[in-house]
Amino acid sequence: MSSQLSSQKVRKPGERIFCLLLIVVSIFLFWQAYQIAGFSSLSSSGAFPLAASATMVLASCVVFVNTLKLPAAEGIQFFRHCLPPVVSIIMAIILLYAVVIDSLGFILSSFVFLFVCIQLLYRRSPLFTLAISIVSLIVVYIIFRLVFQVVLPEGIVPEREIIAQITSWWSN
Amino acid sequence: MKKTIALLAALSLSSTVALADYPSKDVQGIIQWGAGGSTDTVMRSIAPHVEDALGTDLILTNRTGGVGAIATKYVNAKKADGYTLLMGAENPQMYKVLGLAKIDYSDMIAINVLARGTPVLVANNDAPFNNMQEFLDYTKANPGKVKLGSTGKGGLASIVLAMLNSQVDLNYISIPYNGDGPALTALQGGAIDVMPVVLGASLESIKAGRMKVIGLIDKEANDLLPNVPPATDTLPGLARYLPWGPFFGVFVKKGTPEDAVIKLQSAFHSAATSPDFVSLMEKRGFTILNIAGEKADTFLNSYRSTSSWLVDEAGFSKYSPEKFGIPKPQ
Amino acid sequence: MDALHFFATSWLSPELLGLTALGTFLGIYVGAIPGLSVTMAVSILISFTFSWDVNNALCLMVGVYMGGVYGGSRTAILLNIPGAPSAIATAMDGYPLAKKGLAGEAIGLSTVMSVIGGFVGIIVLALAAPTVSEFAITFQPRDYMMLGVLGIMLVGSLSGNSLAKGIFAGALGLLIGTVGLDPMSAEERFTFGVVELWDGINPVAVMIGMFGVSEALHQLHHMDKAVVKQKISRIIPKLSDVKKYLPLSLQTSFIGVIIGALPGTGGDIAALMAYDHAKRTTKNPKVPFGEGAKEGLIAPESANNAAVGGAYIPMLTLGIPGDAVTAVFIGALFIHGLNPGPMLLVEQPQMFWFTVGNLTLANIFVLIFGLTGIRLFSKIVECPKGILIPLIFLLSIVGAYAINNAVIDIWWMFAFGVFGYFMRLYGFPVGPVILGVILSSLTDENWRRAILTESGSLGNFFAHIFTSPLSSVLFLSILLIFFSKTSLWNKGLKPLLFRTKQKP
């Protein structure tokens, strides 16, 4: 899908602003790179970042000029074809998930995330969604937490206590 | 159904049980350095013995970043319940003067300082000097010629060089590497001439004759290097800093219940005496310390004093050690 | 005779055979899941196998290593999320194949080529280890720097339609790679005073965001479109195909062994260089690169598996790790009471052939496990998008967290996912960003070391390039590739120099 988008010969809505933003960001980064060590020496810690950010400034200017030359695409609206509501909603949900994962813990936040997303995108009965969410969560938990011992954020669920109880209970 | 009720009942009890009977769940060990590094190797080799002594799992996690500051901060942000251990190397002792963090090991409880390494100076086989005196003479006679490897400010190499510079005025090119391994590789390839490094990292290559030792930064000779005299023979003034060397230790947050600290200390103490671990450390050229409590604090403070003041005199500290009440070494 | 005996140790013992098989199987899954790295899995195994016999432990770990390097291609092809940085190049042409319903064929082909690459690596290890390792340590900082520059020039291959957009993306990647405490001077670069940024931005977080998350976000546009049915009739590649691509696979395997054997570079750089080699040498690909060219799949897959054998070369002969995983192996050998170093093969001569035998066995298991179960894997892509996409997000988030057990990596992954979404939308290639991140520190640090060595003199720097044959070759290849890629060569110099060859 990206290939059909990149072979464009027209300008999409928002493209000019995006390219302009890139120039602004590049200039800011160039300034930051200059702050590291100035133009002091070829072997300074700032030399390479300066070169990279200077390249960014030049390249983004070329891209911007090229974009200006393109004719605007017809019949394409930013909020329908470029950033449809479903994309923004999912982005917001992921953002929210990333915010709460530390405090709520992995299990709770991931469960809610999966349930909401699958319900939103797949639209079947909530029971079905519930089942899918629980099964996938269990699989992910077993792989990451139990097999590969990645200690996922615990949050408000006392995971380690539960595991300790289950193991001691198992061995009895 | 009965089982569920039993589980729930057990769960509701577990919080009180946890306090009464440490450890009631897995203990998490946070390693300051990445997989494959020497801290990682040491901690992973002692962990199974500790698990036996504690009777619980010790889950090891590498949390790298900020010269170990990320792991140190993480452990200090957790509850002081003895379930999160910091497994680290010497670096936090320099955090304050280098301005990397506001905490060091003096703000934590030492469970065990396991072992200490001995620094040596190794050189490329083709280098035109074979011992400390020749090295110093050659460097003085050829200012700006000798290429010395280092591992960044506050690293072992920078402190050893600060020690040497406190005795003699040396003019050399310093080329930084991301650790002992890459620097020693570069040394064998001739990209650098001399590298101050911990003995364990270079021992095998020295034995194989791929590089030569030109100095042992210690007061006494080392059994593993029978023909190398200690550096104090050439530079007696170094004695005030020695013995000095990087170390490995296990720490918990201040405020951890007495009971947990005692159990952890005894577990690590017995683990560090296991023959496997002892022979592993000796073969790598580390001196086993296995100390806790007051002894550990004395050792840690002396390391901090020596290194902080050396770094301060060498001129790359961000803050003076005085600011933190770090006493000058005698 | 001894050699054969040691070589066969793990083949003849049912226990060792079983452990190698188990390790390879696990490794494929570890490799396939982004965020779970082979390095991590092997270090967990150190604790797990602590009380085992050293041979048993090594069999399991070697299996995980071999399987893991191969496994990275799975998710790269199926979901466009490379399981590890060494599979980035695989995603460029592998994923387009899956979108055409050819996932089964792509996985089959990548498996066979990975195994061929693996064997080339093992053969070089077995026959030429001492020579290669002596060669590898002669690389000076300036040589590493030039390797980095060679790598950066791949931006040209990865740029797609707009070179300017590609250069922007590449430079951005290089800049991202410099974030953090500078390892050489401990100066802060782009950290804005945040301690969490000291260690920089993890390339894997950037990779998961730019490839996986941004692609999944774009998929949301087409929720109503039916999923592509995968053709799974053809899994084992045609013999004619294998024959046709064998020369390319062998060439890129050699690139992989050498890059793998260099202590400063690993499979990720090897795979990217191989991809570039394929793109430069393939005159008329049936399908353009980036849209599902088989050459673009074969080259990186051969190279990254060949790099495994390569990485073992300095490790076994000199005790110098060839990559992050062999560094952990060195730790494992220590813990098991061996002394990895230049004396290892003198003290433990059986170790060499045992390892070679083991790697060979693991490579055979990669073939077996790789070719079975493809049907099941291909089904993953046929799973309804409404379920698959949330799961991709979940996996990306857990994967990003697992890199270093830090929530901040989730933030980076998300930020680069959203940024990557807009980059793709406006026709910017995302490949060069990752390329830049991977090559940044290699180029930056070695450039500075090289200049420091020459006491800051650029003149001496160039003078020394021409006193060393290795440096001269690298320098000339940079010039050659640069001019052959730019129009300066095609329009200006080429007709001028080769005028006689042109038709009147």
From TrEMBL, chain A:
The keyword Flavoprotein does not apply. Pfam families: TctB. The chain crosses the membrane at residues 17-34, 46-66, 78-98, 104-122, 127-148. Residues 17-153 form the DUF1468 domain. The keyword Transmembrane applies. Keywords: Membrane, Transmembrane, Transmembrane helix. This is Tripartite tricarboxylate transporter TctB family protein.
TrEMBL record, chain B:
Pfam families: TctC. Keywords: Receptor, Signal. InterPro entries: BUG (IPR005064), Bug_dom1 (IPR042100). It comes from the Bacteria. Residues 1-20 form the signal peptide. Belongs to the UPF0065 (bug) family. This is Tripartite-type tricarboxylate transporter receptor subunit TctC.
UniProtKB/TrEMBL annotation, chain C:
InterPro entries: DUF112_TM. It comes from the Bacteria. It holds the Pfam family TctA. The chain crosses the membrane at residues 20-46, 106-132, 144-164, 254-275, 320-339, 351-374, 386-404, 410-440, 461-483. Keywords: Membrane, Transmembrane, Transmembrane helix. Residues 18-435 form the DUF112 domain. This is Putative tricarboxylic transport membrane protein. It comes from Marinomonas pollencensis.
